[in-house]
Request: fold
Amino acid sequence: MRCQTDARRFRTVALLFLSAAILHACSTLPAAIEPQVVQMLQQTSQSFGARPQIISPADIHALTPEQAQEFLDFFNHPRLADEPAFRRLYYYLEGKVQDFTYRNDTLTASAAFASNSGNCLSLAIMTTALANLVNVPIEYELVDDYPVFEQYGTVIEKGLHVRSLLFDPYRAARGDFMSNNRGIAIDYFPTNAERFVMKMRHEEYQAMYYRNRAVEALRSEDLSSAYWYTMESLQLSPASAESLNMLAIVNRRAGNPDTAEQIYRYAIEHSDEKLSLLKNYRILLSSQGRVAEAMLIEQQLQQMDDRSPFNWLHLARSAQNEGDFSRAIEYFQKALELAPYLHEAHFGVAMAYYELGALNSADHALRLAIDSTTRNSARKLYKGKLAALRREI
Reply:
């Protein structure tokens, strides 16, 4: 199942850089979070105001009566009478998403159905709503192929791909989920290069909706909504490293750095996925001038298998600020090995070469920066720098 749209964009998001938090009353906190963390969070809950009305998982997956009837008319058509239910659902979706339009939003089932748009999680939500109507078992996988990293102001997101798997109800009743007939994958853009990350529990899949909404709120600096959506995600998946990372980020943004640090320490100790937590904790330490502690975290990060170019980009800028331009170029190049489209890294290389007096190398890097960007403002800046540079060569 494919969609004629830029493959980079059909992704759910995992937050990498920033600053965060969560909470309002002890009775609403995830039970899996330790008491000392609960107490710490209660002390800062007033920063985020009263809990707003938040859509329930049932309403996320609700279709209008007209939408449900449209699907059921197709599903129950006599020409499909000999097809198993999960294949009839697949055939419907195959036609439904042919002209699907990308939107960088996580939509409810009814909104995705009505607009025929959304991100990959929106498709999973719409698929789940339809599967629920006809009792088709469904599972979820998180997969990764060539990760794409996008920056919105100070928010950096890594694209991860969620896909749904539809199963024959009769096999599922026997627990035969992963037999030779492992189900049909519902996926916008199957590249055959996907790397399986994990099988997701239903609660983790639901938590992803609220976490995505929290990221969207952060883009617009709406810390209150980001906080409460993160809270909702932690209710469903209390041990989620991504949600704890968001929790620390929101607290830092809200002016609660001590709380953010305690969350980072707690999450790093208790989570298997420490990479994003360590990155953000290092940023917090650096912002407080705790250089030696930040360097220890940096050394840990350099020993980890990090596929994020923004880690190297951050290290490169730190090296630039310290006047170590050769090391900065090394880190910028590592970022470009992972994401050659990053015009910011090409520009960083150019500036570092300029400081080292390697003007021809700076010229080459600036031209690569110009070729890599689609932003008019950045292109104008780089062309101005290039013109000034050539007057010195």
